[in-house]
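Dear colleagues,

As part of the handover before I leave the project, I'm documenting each prediction I ran so the next person doesn't have to rerun anything. This entry is a single chain, and its sequence is reproduced below.
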Amino acid sequence: MSGFEIWGDVDRFRTAGTESVKHLWAKVELDRRRKDEREPWFSGEYRFERKFADRVPDCLVYGGPVNRWIEIVAGSDQPYREKTREALRLGCVVHWVFHTEHREQQAAARAALEPELEGPFEFGEYDPRAGELDVGTPVTYKNYAFPVEEFAEFQPEEILGYRKGKARIERRACGWDLGLFDLAGSHRRVIAMTRDGRRFKSLAPGQPDEDAVWDFPTKDAVKALIENGRVTRLGPVGQPGDQDSR
């Protein structure tokens, strides 16, 4: 016996694989609170178990002031750091929400995230028996550093989801807007002119597209800076208005 009930049409909340009742409850409760406008709830479209790029968030709140990627943890191990970086890259803030019976997993998650944490952050928790749900405070670019560890971060064809056409990157200055980076202390919006990252343009913050500088940085310079740990992502890839999530 679970000690709590889930009622109504819940099929649209289910994951494709085996799912515990404890995990399913949190998604159903998120939707109930959306309908009742009862905390925690957010403006935007709630999408449960639907593809966003090549990933399937438990819940994606899309189209509000910020896009929210909500992950529910009820016993299964998670690639906490990898999922957090993927969500941030694609323009979402990330909520990690844990069942109260699995607080030990919070320690594993914090160990995975803590090396890059730079500001206040709290995990969410939920307790189906008590009817309690708290999504905590999200991971964002304001409280989490995103060091670039491989050149694939500068190759549109390698960025998660691009290869399958799911996570389209906004076109800008005749290239692909890879987002804002700190390149050895210089903040530049980098635009890939080829899908494999052979050539770039870049813009200083606020600089008009027509003034984009060719071959700054060069491919070799980017690789050298990455090898020396001097590249940090400061924001997501360019987000088209019709971002594909299904």
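Residues 55 and 129 are 30 Å apart (CA to CA). The first strand starts at residue 45 and ends at 48.

All the best with the project,
I.
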